[in-house]
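TICKET: design request
STATUS: open
ATTACHED STRUCTURE:
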């Protein structure tokens, strides 16, 4: 019963994203659709916010199927060019295998893959060992904490949520800026919601196209999951993201390397609210307890904290807990501020240093305005490898104008090493057999539904180190949900 309720809650999001029938029905019913971000931002009724609309410009662009595992689109020469360059650069370590078997469903790490993994952690596989320091010298360390004392790194995954206005209003009213990790599928489904993220002054990073376990995907799929999400964000929000967070934290040196080749720094977390689990029946009081535990650590650490823009529950519990967080931590800042990343994007938008931010300059200079922001299908999207990014205050080399220090700051071997490599690694092998077909996944309607439900259900494990039993039960729950959703969607 509970499952059915959850599933029904998901139906509008799925249908809006991927069902043509649903769109036609809406047209037939003559519902008025919003036309721009400013209009959308003015709606506060959650059901109204989530009504389907279409941005004509975006509709003219090609993207992978919503909620499906992305692969490079037929005839997308730009994408092939970038991908070929990354492979040739030799950054992808050839010894790191795809995790799990060929039959992996990409929605969990099998017990087998976990238990047979070499305990010395040659791949720096976070899901197994929580490793954040790559073994490969060519890849920078993950960012997972703030270097400033008494600081809470404010991050929300899984947006843009169609019904986030009340939450974004709350952030505005409390002068909060966060790092938002957006899912490509949702950026394309809810472009005006995504535009509000940047015009409100938050910083935007990539959270993949379809929210799968990235270590289970082929090289080319990993590339496409990141590439098309960043491309969608560029077209919709006007910025080229240079940071990303792996769903479930599932990353190893192969996946990190592809992200680095695309110019994206990997960001994890140090503390986890587990807020997603309210949607699956965990009592809210448990999550309140989690927040309180993190609050109690304020004098020991400055964690980047994992929370979600996933549902009214997760957005609501943050609002409920905010005053206590504020009492516990002197500073609540986005990652740009906590790392002095003043230039997170190649575009001309400047974010505040930590000092400036806590001094009250919370808005980036030259950010786009909600009354004029438009989707730009012709926006040039040209990713540059982390190793080739120059200039201070980038994710490749954080530290703002004063020059950074600290364990995660920039001038490590990764940001300075040239991308020229000794060996043209064989890492491309696993993708070389990928034909240019986009149909790498069989397209049943069940698969259609599964993506979105994965994004929701499975955020579940953003946190968990995917250990066997819990992983299995989530998988079972996942299939139950999928079945319920499919049933619901076609009623
Ligand atoms: C894929 O398509 C691109 C251009 O459309 C082409 O250059 C490339 O060789 C193709 N790759 C394969 C594996 O067919
Ligand atoms: C956003 O939140 C609403 C309300 O909790 C939920 O129904 C919806 O599925 C969520 N997801 C997206 C992508 O909007
Ligand atoms: C950020 O910059 C300030 C000076 O504006 C400096 O004191 C601080 O150490 C820097 N922090 C990091 C993490 O780079
Ligand atoms: C940063 O790296 C470059 C290139 O390796 C090196 O020349 C320079 O001295 C380094 N700077 C610092 C502050 O370590
Ligand atoms: C690696 O590949 C590049 C481009 O294909 C080529 O120019 C270079 O000679 C190759 N290097 C080695 C060591 O094979």
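STATUS: resolved
RESOLUTION: sequence designed for all positions
ATTACHED SEQUENCE:
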């Amino acid at each position: 019963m509970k499952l059915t309720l959850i599933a029904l809650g998901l139906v509008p999001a799925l249908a809006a994203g991927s069902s043509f029938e649903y769109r036609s029905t809406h047209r037939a019913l003559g519902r008025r659709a919003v036309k721009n971000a400013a209009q959308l931002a003015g709606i506060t009724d959650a059901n109204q916010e989530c009504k389907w609309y279409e941005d004509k410009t975006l509709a003219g662009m090609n993207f992978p199927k919503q909620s499906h595992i992305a692969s490079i689109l037929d005839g997308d020469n730009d994408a092939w060019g970038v991908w070929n360059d990354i492979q040739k650069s030799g950054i992808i370590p050839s010894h790191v295998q795809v995790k799990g078997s060929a039959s992996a469903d990409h929605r969990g790490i099998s017990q087998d893959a976990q238990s047979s993994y070499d305990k010395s952690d040659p791949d720096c596989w976070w899901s197994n060992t929580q490793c954040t320091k790559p073994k490969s010298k060519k890849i920078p360390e993950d960012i997972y904490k703030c270097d400033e004392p008494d600081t809470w790194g404010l991050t929300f995954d899984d947006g843009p949520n169609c019904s986030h206005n009340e939450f974004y209003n709350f952030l505005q009213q409390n002068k909060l800026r966060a790092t938002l990790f957006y899912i490509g599928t949702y950026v394309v489904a809810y472009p005006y919601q995504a535009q509000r993220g940047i015009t409100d002054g938050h910083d935007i990073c990539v959270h993949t196209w379809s929210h799968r376990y990235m270590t289970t995907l082929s090289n080319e799929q990993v590339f496409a999951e990141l590439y098309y999400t960043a491309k969608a964000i560029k077209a919709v929000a006007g910025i080229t993201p240079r940071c990303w967070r792996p769903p479930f934290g599932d990353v190893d040196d192969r996946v990190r390397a592809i992200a680095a080749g695309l110019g994206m720094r990997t960001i994890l977390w140090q503390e986890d609210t587990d807020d997603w689990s309210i949607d699956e029946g965990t009592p809210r009081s448990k999550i309140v307890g989690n927040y309180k535990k993190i609050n109690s650590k304020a004098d020991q650490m400055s964690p980047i904290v994992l929370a979600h823009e996933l549902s009214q529950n997760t957005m609501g519990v943050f609002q409920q807990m905010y005053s206590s967080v504020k009492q516990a931590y002197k500073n609540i800042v986005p990652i740009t501020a906590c790392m002095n990343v003043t230039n997170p994007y190649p575009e001309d938008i400047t974010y505040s240093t930590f000092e400036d931010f806590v001094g009250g300059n919370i808005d980036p200079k030259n950010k786009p305005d909600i009354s004029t922001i438009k989707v730009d299908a012709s926006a040039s999207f040209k990713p540059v490898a982390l190793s080739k990014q120059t200039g201070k205050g980038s994710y490749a080399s954080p530290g703002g104008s004063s020059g950074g220090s600290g364990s995660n700051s920039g001038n490590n071997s990764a940001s300075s090493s040239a991308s020229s490599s000794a060996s043209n690694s064989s890492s491309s092998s696993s993708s070389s057999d990928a034909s240019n077909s986009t149909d790498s996944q069989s397209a049943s309607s069940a698969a259609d539904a599964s993506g979105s439900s994965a994004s929701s259900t499975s955020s579940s494990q953003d946190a968990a180190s995917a250990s066997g039993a819990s992983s299995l039960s989530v998988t079972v729950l996942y299939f139950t949900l999928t079945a319920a959703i499919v049933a619901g969607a076609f009623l």
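CLOSING REMARK: The pocket of 2-acetamido-2-deoxy-beta-D-glucopyranose (ligand 2) is lined by residues 9-10, 13, 46, 161-163, 186, 311-312 (CB under 6 Å). The mean pLDDT is 81.
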